[in-house]
Design brief:
heterodimer; A: 272 residues; alpha+beta; Uridine Diphospho-n-acetylenolpyruvylglucosamine Reductase, domain 2; Uridine Diphospho-n-acetylenolpyruvylglucosamine Reductase, domain 3; Enolase-like, domain 1; five-stranded antiparallel sheet; four-stranded antiparallel sheet; 11 helices; 14 strands; B: 148 residues; Ubiquitin-like (UB roll); DNA polymerase, domain 1; five-stranded mixed sheet
Chain lengths: 272, 148
């Protein structure tokens, strides 16, 4: 059997150089997606080498920088949940991280991996969209709403490494995931919502995580009923092993209505 | 490459891209670690890396270079079982036994981290470990009996 080479770079500069110059090289962080596919030999193209980013100090940690919080691409969800900056400024990200797998997965899963894998069901991805996060790479900063380009497709170039994610601290975001059970579940619908600015970001309802632009336009006009009516036209759900398109449409509307009726998203005039 | 397995220095010659699970079982004789789903869903292959619980089917063995790996074989001190292991026996918290090594390691971490635990804390802490016999009640009772 063909053996895949394992490469551990000394530092980020070394990793960037190796990734640019080694054909068939695939970045690896916590392995929660890639190790399954590597073992099942379903990675395409088949990798020659795995470039291990997990231990690179430059890709770890949560840093407050002015009016932003930056999270290293290889920081674990456990580290993200434990961060005081995240708890204080990005509670929706902590909430999303807590719904991912269970302890074993939270100890290994990373934002860089969730982004690079670009699953339509990636649980943190609607949160990143609702915060207008910025994906930082070895060469540029990519606005999150330009990052996903199709089913498991991203704007990343073939030799481009994600190094971190930056979040602005200017808004309140709320989060809800609907799955089969509380732990170890892949989402049927996963949503993150901000009232000001109006952001409605949803996963598992199209070929990629998306912003519901029609619903956002209604929300911008303070038309909450209009937003939940419009959201079904913004999504493209399918029938699959986890759910049906009809269920996902209904639950998307229900969850949006629920998320627009929280303390963080309700308009003062419409409160009790 | 070298790492520490249950307090002993071990080395492995071969691709660092192999799964830690396979190297433990096939190269290092640590067959207490079981393979369940091989996809990070069931927790049967749980081990500790530097004290954190992980699924060893999702770890490339190169990633544990220089680190400390604990498997179920490393819990007992010589022949003396831990209080948690004794509690599993007393409560009948094992049926077919496939999930037991992973349950023990996840529960071991849970007991180390938290002072007092409720049944819901235990359920959440063990949410990544599935029992295919569905014998959860006795497992939760066994863990709770160690929290007093």
């Amino acid at each position: 059997m063909h053996e895949v080479t394992y490469i551990r770079p000394r530092n980020l500069a070394d990793a960037v150089h190796i990734y640019r110059t080694t054909p068939g090289c695939r970045p690896l962080a916590g392995g929660t997606d890639l190790m399954v596919m590597l073992h099942a030999r379903t990675l395409r193209p088949e990798p020659e080498a795995m470039l291990d980013l997990w231990s690179l100090a430059e890709l770890k940690g949560v840093r407050r920088a002015g009016d932003m919080v930056e999270i290293g691409a290889a920081e674990s969800y456990t580290g993200i949940i434990a961060s005081r900056d995240v708890q204080q400024h990005l509670p929706a990200l902590a909430a999303a991280a807590r719904t991912i797998g269970a302890a074993q997965i939270q100890n290994r899963g990373t934002l860089g991996g969730n982004l690079a894998n670009a699953s339509p069901a990636g649980d943190t991805l609607p949160v990143l969209l609702a915060y207008d996060a910025t994906v930082v790479t070895d060469r540029r900063a990519i606005p999150i709403d330009q990052f996903f380009t199709g089913y498991r497709q991203t704007a990343l170039q073939a030799d481009e490494l994600i190094t971190g994610v930056r979040f602005p601290l200017d808004r309140q975001v709320v989060f809800r995931k609907v799955g089969t059970r509380a732990a170890q579940a892949i989402s049927k619908v996963v949503m993150a919502v901000s009232r000001h600015p109006a952001r409605i970001a949803i996963g598992s309802v199209a070929e990629m995580p998306l912003r519901a632009r029609g619903a956002e336009a209604a929300l911008e006009r303070n038309d909450v009923a209009g937003a939940s009516a419009a959201v079904v036209d913004d999504i493209r759900p399918i029938d699959d092993v986890r759910s049906t398109a009809a269920y996902r449409r209904q639950v998307t509307q229900n969850v949006l209505r629920e998320l627009l009726d929280t303390r963080a998203t309700r308009e003062p005039s419409s409160g009790p | 490459m070298r790492f520490t397995l249950n307090g002993q220095a071990v080395s492995f010659e071969g691709s660092g891209a192999r799964r830690l699970l396979d190297v433990l079982r096939e190269e290092l004789g640590a067959t207490g670690t079981k393979e369940g789903c091989g996809e990070g869903e069931c927790g049967a292959c749980s081990v500790l890396i530097d004290g954190e619980v992980v699924d060893s089917c999702l770890v490339a063995v190169g990633q544990v270079e220089g680190r400390e790996v604990t498997t179920v074989e490393g819990l007992a001190d010589g022949g003396r079982l831990t209080a948690l292991q004794q509690a599993f026996i007393q409560h009948g918290a094992a049926q077919c036994g496939i999930c037991t090594p992973g349950m023990l390691l996840a529960a071991h971490v849970l007991l180390q981290q938290a002072g007092r635990l409720t049944a819901d804390d235990v359920r959440e802490g063990l949410a990544g470990n599935l029992c295919r016999c569905t014998g959860y009640t006795k497992i939760i009772d066994a863990v709770l009996s160690c929290t007093k």
